[in-house]
Amino acid sequence: MRMDRRSSLPGHAGFSLLEVLVAFTLLALAMGVVMQIFSRGVNGATLADRYAKATMYAESMLSSVGSETELKEGSADGKFDDDFSWALAVRAYQDPYPKDQAVIDYEKLMPTQLFEVELKVSFMAEDRRERVLNLSTLRMGPKT
């Protein structure tokens, strides 16, 4: 014996137009939130990639200071490409801790000195804000 559902549940033949519209509205809102989250993730990955490229440029330039270019006090700037620019500053390193007058100052006896090398790499992010990566190191060079 076969039972027909429609005959056993009178008035419940399907979804009303209002129920369908509410369901589509909720689906659209949920998809909007999901797409926003996905978009932020993609933007974050793009920004991380740009920072990685800036770091690669900065490390490459810092490794050349003192080996390929002369290590002397001063500053310089330029561009790696259309998107990335740099500013380099080299200055004599100043020890932040005061020396005791009774201790021999070995730095005066050495033919070399320490230089602080600071490099700033800047680029524009997709949100049109300038981002800056700062790297610094100490290098041994001839006394000036």
Outline the structure in words.
This protein is of the alpha+beta class and 144 residues long. It contains 3 helices and 4 strands. It has a 4-stranded antiparallel beta sheet, covered by helices on one side. A hairpin with a 4-residue loop joins β1 and β2. It is elongated and about 100 Å long. The termini are far apart. The model has no long low-confidence stretch (mean pLDDT 84).
Secondary-structure map with pairings?
Blueprint: H1 5-8, H2 17-64, E1 74-79, E2 84-92, H3 106-109, E3 112-124, E4 130-142
Antiparallel strand pairs: 1-2, 2-3, 3-4
Short description:
With 144 residues, this protein is an alpha+beta fold.
Give the tags.
alpha+beta
Radius of gyration: 32 Å
Instruction: State the secondary-structure class.
Output: alpha+beta
Measured between the Cα atoms of the first and last residue, the distance is 106 Å
Measured as a percent range, the helix fraction is: 25-40%
**How much is the average pLDDT?**
84
Number of beta strands: 4
Along the chain, the helix and strand elements come as HHEEHEE
Strand content: 25-35%
Largest sheet: 4 strands, antiparallel
Point out poorly predicted stretches.
Answer: none
Q: What shape does the CA trace take?
A: elongated
- Tally of individual helices: 3
Q: Main sheet: which strands, in order across? A: 1-2-3-4
